[in-house]
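Standup, Tuesday
Yesterday: got the pipeline producing structure tokens again.
Today: sanity-check two examples.
Blockers: none.

Example 1:
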Amino acid sequence: MQEPNYEDPLNHDAAAVLRENPKMFESNVRRAMAGGYVGQTFFPR
């Protein structure tokens, strides 16, 4: 969990964001963990 691996992902969409835009990936993780939307998916707190 500390070092996500985009070469062998469970979530291919998240892996693509990590590979192409690590800052956006970090922002998405923070938003999901705090409770909110990432794309069209809602993550409850």
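Example 2:
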Amino acid sequence: KTEHNEVAPAQHELAPVYTTMNLACDHNQLTMEIMKKVAERHGLMCLLHEKPFAGVNGSGKHNNWSLSTDTGINLFAPGKTPERKRLFLLMVAAVVAAVDEHQDLLRMSVASAGNDHRLGANEAPPAIVSVYLGDDLQLQLEAAAEGRDEHLHRETLNTGVHVLPDFKKDTSDRNRTSPMAFTGNKFEFRMLGSENSIADTNIALNTIFAEALCNFAEQLQNADDVSAAVQQILADTLKTHGRIIFNGNNYSQEWVAEAERRGLLNLRTTADAMHAFATEKNVALFKKFGVYNHSEVVSRKDILLENYTKLIAIEANTMIDMARTQIIPAGFRYGKSLADYAMKKKELGVKSKAETDLLQRVSALTDEIASKTEALENVLIDLYDKEHPSYYCRDAVIPAMNELRAAADQLEPLTAKEYQPFPTYSDLLYSV
């Protein structure tokens, strides 16, 4: 539908036309394939990695999710009649209950090695799942739970131009930090990485929402007074699951502490999220609705964890190869150049403090890179001997990779351009 420039250099946003879920999943996969092919045709590379450059905005997807009846009624659209308003609030309450009850499944549905770098990096929601309703909708929900009638309060927008008429402010989402936000007539789930299939997320959303509706239906079917039953459901939902609602800044460290106080999950890595996939509770949920049986859940978890472990191992071995064959030799060559230049100046009786100081720094960092490379090699030796290789990746391999990366990052800006073995960020980002 639209395509426009995004925050990072050579980064663009693509917004497709909404359609039914099965078609949308297929269209999304096709779009990714087409983007890669078109980029290659023009001598470019389409990067769908969630965080290809450290310190630069990564890429993700926003999954706009809603539910309509077979007659076209959007159940997440606020109605005008009392019955429609009740139905709307009941649907919102079901989302709140579902997301709180199954935070782990939603986090699992977006888990990947690349997305671990993006989530919580002050450009994307954190790994903590929460729901944004906005102050107006939350007030309506709380009022309905107490049996009060709360009308929508819309403030006037001041344009600063006195000849223009007053406009009512849009009450839909303005909190771009929330992972699951109500946006007028739908919920927008923003935790997906750019390489993720949207199918996993929508399978999880539909299943957990179905369970919440089933629980509500059991209470409503035998109710003598439906209105009173709805009020009780809303009150119980807010009491039991209200902790998942958060309208503040999800990027802040204060929210991390507050989420822990509320008892919300913080599954920071793919290893944490994937192991939560096959819990007894989640297996029972999928079996109940005929989505997956026990073997299918376990096999999916095992395959996803194996893929994660292999990807981390490939990245680690690539780092070792880059360091051994290019970065360390480049440090040697540049160090030799500095040493030769300093010696010639000394022979002429000219001071060479700058060259000597730089040589010492380059030499020390080159030694450190060699040491960190060897340490990473030693860590990798034990990878597949561990009972849980994914946890070993999280606790040992990735920290060793980060240490090697940190040393190499310190050497790069000290090295003359003609000795640098790889394109710099400036070369990569500003030469397109």
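Quick observation on example 2: The chain has two domains: 47-292, 310-430. The chain has 14 helices and eight strands.
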